[in-house]
Amino acid sequence: MPKEAKNWKEMRSERQLKQQRSQGGFQRQKANEDNLKPRKFPMQRIVIGVALIVLIVTAYGIWQYNETQKIPTINGATGNLSPAGSAPDFSIKDINGTQFSLSQFSGRVIGIHFMAVGCHGQINPINEYELSELSGACNNLCGTDKVTFITVAVATCENSELDLLRSNYSVTWTLGNDYDDGAIEIVNAYVPYEIGDGAVVLIDKSFNIAKVFSLGISGSKLTSEISALLA
Question: Between the N and C ends of the chain, which has fewer C-beta atoms within 10 Å?
Answer without folding.
Answer: N
